[in-house]
Write a structure and sequence with these properties.
This protein is α+β, with helices and mostly antiparallel strands. It has a domain of 71 residues. Helices cover 32% and strands 20% of the residues. A three-stranded antiparallel beta sheet has the order 2-1-3. The longest helix is centred in the middle third of the chain and has 13 residues. The N and C termini lie far apart (49 Å).
């Protein structure tokens, strides 16, 4: 039985995103509604970590077709060293603070060193 309209997700596409915090640190998370999540971070309601490090700015995001895939990528990004995360950010920076994706797009591929 299909879900009623009010219970369907706003966007079936999941995004992994990185925020650059005021202190220079990076925060990694996932969402299926990036604008709403960014507003929650800005209001200090999305994460205890970012609440203490406001303001934050979107530095990077990439699309995934499922929540599971996004969670796996989030874990992989969190395991990266800071220099590796900086290389990821420089490989595909956010444009004008927000990148919009079609879920049919593939996430960025790794560049050879």
């Amino acid at each position: 039985m299909p879900l009623p309209e009010r219970h369907r997700p706003v966007n079936p596409c999941w995004l992994v995103y990185l925020l650059r915090c005021h202190d220079g640190s990076l925060y990694c998370g996932i969402t299926n509604d990036l604008p709403k999540r960014l507003l929650a971070h800005a209001a200090g309601k999305a994460s205890r970590y970012t609440r203490a490090r406001l303001p934050v700015a979107l530095a990077y995001s990439e699309p995934h077709k499922s929540k599971s895939a996004a969670l796996k990528r989030e874990v992989a990004i969190k395991k990266l060293s800071r220099p590796q995360k900086d290389r990821l950010l420089s490989s595909k920076p956010a444009r004008h603070g927000i990148m919009l994706f079609n879920c049919q797009q593939s996430p960025p591929t790794r560049r050879p060193p």
